[in-house]
Write a structure and sequence with these properties.
Blueprint lengths: L1 E3 L12 H12 L5 E4 L11 H18 L3 E4 L5 H12 L5 E4 L9 H15 L4 E4 L10 H10 L3 E5 L5 H8 L4 E3 L5 H4 L10 H5 L1 H13 L1 H18 L1 H5 L4 H12 L20 H11 L9
Parallel strand pairs: 1-2, 2-3, 3-4, 4-5, 5-6, 6-7
Helix pairs in contact: 1-2, 3-4, 5-6, 9-10, 10-13, 12-13
Length: 298
């Protein structure tokens, strides 16, 4: 169970690094298996290069002091800028670097291989995780994963939406670690999921770890928690999705409902933020439906 850093933003969209450090302190103490930065929820596409480097240095220093694994996203829609981010992230020697496929035009399978091979060289021995969400222009199927894993030994994991039993059967042939959305982890673990870069951890970092441990000891009980997470999402997250809010806005809303850190609901321009007035009723529902995830912050 891994959690991401979320950007606490001031009204002018600048990052409040004091609040970011406080958030990081809480995450380090939550019992998570690792932390990462610069996924979709981290609004990586909005960052300036100085902001990117400063967040990396902060996360690396805090996790190294706590002996906690960490990963750095180097994602950028531009292959050239992403390659430069990979080089700078690699200098901090994270546990892995997360990358996306360049995202203006779709790539051919040959271009995907050429891209990952060059990224692996730039990573200088740091392993790679391919982040391939449903909205990516280039979708990598499970059969292609095996070819990529053989050709690029630095590739160790996949971050994706997962799939059905047939998808997992094919994807497991790659030998990669398969990480799936947090709110599906209990049902996807028996199919072959290894873990999650988790939106449930955005709601409750410590609670998500407790839920993961429940999956190991009482899987039926963990599935019941997942059913109630889905009920909570249907009532409070699906309407925001229907209104067009982005995944960063949804994860920040979850963190505000969880109340474990002062992240706020604001996302960077031009994305729309969740209405803070919706937090209190969602928190009441979370308290009622998901007492297992309450780590004392609700």
């Amino acid at each position: 169970m891994w959690a991401t850093l979320l950007l606490p933003l001031d009204p002018d969209d600048t990052i409040d690094f004091a609040r970011l450090r406080t958030q990081l302190d809480h995450l380090v103490q939550a019992g998570l298996h690792g932390l990462y930065a610069h996924g979709t929820a981290g609004e990586f596409q909005t960052l300036t290069e100085p902001e990117y480097d400063r967040i990396n240095e902060l996360l690396a220093a805090r996790c190294e002091a706590a002996d906690l694994p960490f990963q750095l996203g180097a994602s950028h829609p531009s292959a050239q800028l992403q390659l430069d981010r990979v080089r700078r992230a690699a200098a901090l020697r994270p546990s892995a670097i997360q990358v996306i496929l360049p995202d203006w035009l779709p790539l051919t399978p040959g271009e995907v291989l050429v891209f990952l091979d060059r990224v692996a060289q730039a990573a200088d021995g740091v392993p790679l995780v391919l982040y391939n969400p449903p909205h990516a222009k280039t979708q990598v199927g499970p059969e292609q994963l095996a070819d990529l894993a053989r050709a690029v030994p630095a590739l160790i994991g996949l971050k994706s939406a997962g799939g059905d039993a047939a998808w997992f059967d094919a994807a497991r042939e790659s030998g990669l670690s398969l990480f799936v959305p947090g709110h599906f982890l209990a049902s996807m673990t028996p199919l072959g999921a290894d873990g999650s870069y988790s939106n449930v951890a955005a709601l409750s970092p410590a609670g998500s770890v407790g839920w993961y441990e429940l999956m190991q000891s009482d899987h039926q009980a963990a599935l019941d928690v997942e059913r109630r997470i889905a009920e909570f999402f249907a009532e409070h997250i699906a309407p925001l999705q229907k209104d067009g809010l982005s995944n960063p806005a949804l994860d920040k809303f979850l963190a505000a409902v969880g109340g474990w850190a002062d992240v706020g609901t604001r996302v960077r321009w031009p994305m729309t933020s969740a209405d803070p007035d919706l937090v209190a009723p969602a928190r009441a529902t979370a308290r009622r439906l998901l007492p297992e995830l309450d780590a004392g912050n609700w």
